[in-house]
Amino acid sequence: MKKILTLNSISPVINDVFDDSYEVGSEVKDPIGIMLRSFKMHDYALSESTVAVARAGAGVNNIPTDEYAKKGVVVFNTPGANANAVKELVIAALLLGSRKIVDAIEWTKTLKGQGEEVGKLVEKGKSKFAGIEIQGKKLGVIGLGAIGALVTNAAIALNMEVIGYDPFLSVEAALRLSRHVKVVKNLDELISSCDYVTIHIPYIAAQNKGFINAEFISKMKDGADIINCARGELADNAAILDAVKSGKLSRYVVDFPSDELIGVENIVCIPHLGASTEEAENNCAEMAARQLVDYIENGNIVNSVNYPTCTMPRSTDFRLVILHKNIQNILAQITTTVGGEGINIANMTNKSKGDYAVTILDVEKAVSDHAIEGLEKVEGIIKIRVI
Known about the structure:
Blueprint: E1 2-6, E2 22-25, E3 33-36, E4 52-55, H1 65-71, E5 74-76, H2 83-99, H3 101-109, H4 118-125, E6 138-142, H5 146-157, E7 161-165, H6 171-176, E8 182-184, H7 187-193, E9 196-199, H8 205-208, H9 214-218, E10 224-228, H10 237-246, E11 249-254, E12 267-269, H11 278-298, E13 318-325, H12 330-340, E14 345-353, E15 356-363, H13 369-376, E16 381-386
Parallel strand pairs: 1-2, 1-3, 3-4, 4-5, 6-7, 6-9, 7-8, 9-10, 10-11, 11-12
Antiparallel strand pairs: 13-15, 13-16, 14-15
Helix pairs in contact: 2-5
């Protein structure tokens, strides 16, 4: 029985993915795989039996991915599974920033008890909440991945002019974009010309903490809005507060509340609702579970954040999956060691990313303990799995 530990409540759709050969639950011991959402694993005592961790969501700041890579534990996430949910919230944020809807609703609550006077008071007071339409305005989208692409296309459908920026734009991602999106290579061109800027890049503390800072804001149009449904740490909150209070920014709509932002005029704090839909939670859970099963049963790696994508169709009944350092001559040592044991390699693939690599070997007979011992002596081998 293969055991899967759930560290958070996970959508029951995973029960359709894990068959009767799996035991899944929050109390299982010595799991081969772990599923989670927001559980913080940095101080978690990981079992030696665990070969993979699957995050039902995109962000993995709660998982020590580098530490796990050193242990040969593959960490998966689910990019794109919650993209539509986030897209819809971004569109809502555009309207919240333009129409002062939140302020108007809160003011309307003060009219409770006014009886027949409510209608007159509404007509008298509504002018305080007059806004602007988003049609015809310019939206800048920073990051054109799964979420960014959906946002650009939805905004164009709402008759907005959209400018996109992504220095790592792939061909696949580009094909998802409407032909009406103007993609620029200079970020300043986007910042300086747009009425709204929405950010959709992964947060990496060492690289882009405070990406939206005073310098960034100084280049924006006066009275522009910023929408941040990506990660709170991407913005320097002190710079945001200064810009909102001075009027440089008209509004800041953020899906990551913090104490200093809550209750500030012209800052709308949404309680991290980006992926909080039934559909998104189901999509993320199912995707994470399928990736976990494929790695446990076949050694295939898709959407890992700490190891390269590496997949190969099964061609024999015996498979070796080897996680190792990305160093010279190690592949030759692996094949020589396996061949030296009289084991014929029917098919193989090798992929690398940064410091780490994966080699999958389909062999024509069972791999002996002696062969495994020989592989373990090869410098740079991290983990060997026989499937």
